[in-house]
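Quick one: structure for this chain?
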Amino acid sequence: MSFNGFNVFVGNLPATTTGWDVENWLEFEQLPYVRVLILQDPKTGKSKRCGFIRVANESHLQPIIDRFHGSLIEGKQIRVSVAKKPAQRRQGDVTHEQSSTKLSISARQPSGDQHSLR
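Got it. Here's what it folds into:
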């Protein structure tokens, strides 16, 4: 699966966190985003406790990282960083194309290329 735009990686999420939860956090903070993806195990359907926030503009990456990196969510300190492209990951890491990881795409999709609160 390839992504257009820029991605923020979000890790160490509580297992109960959904794409809707992340969208609500972003909307509450009035941070623009395009889509939220939460990774799930394809066999169990359980969250892999990480995901991605896609933004349309590179300038939207840092405000999300600054606001959420290190935040406590249900007692877990989440990690937020610029997502690395598969070629930038350490050797031995599994890329999305090689894995059977299921992406849970939040059902609420903005009508345009960008979602932001006014």
